[in-house]
Prior knowledge:
By secondary structure, the protein is mostly beta strands.
Amino acid sequence: MGQFQEWKTQSIRSAAILTTGYVAGTVLSNVELSNQLVVLVDYTKGSLDDIRVKVEFSSDNTNWYQETFGAISATVETISLGEHKLVSTGKYRLPIEVKDRYIRVSVKGTGTVTNSSCTLDAVIGVS
C-alpha cells in the first residue's frame, strides 16, 4: 500500500511579458514542512533568445540564498550560483529539493521581449 503524499499548487506569476531584469514572483511561505518543490513554467518564446529562472531560499524572508549547481573535475567540485535556462517555447517542470521556510522564484528574458510570455506555478509537497 502506498504512502499518502500531501501537496498543494500555488501561483507564483501570472502570464505576462518578460523583462530583461529579474522579476520575483509571489514568495512561497511556510513551506518548511515540505521537501519538494516543482516549478511549472509555461513559456512562450516570442522574439527572446531564452529565459532564465532563478530560485532563492530563506529562513527569515530577509536573507536570501540562491540555488547552486556543482561541476566535478577530478576530485574537486566547483559550486556556482545557478539559473535554469530555457530556450524554446514549452511547458517545463523543474523539480527542486527544499528545506526552507521561504522560497522566491524570479524570471527574466534575454534578447528582445516582444511577444514573450511566462507563467510560473509551484507544486509544493512531501515525498
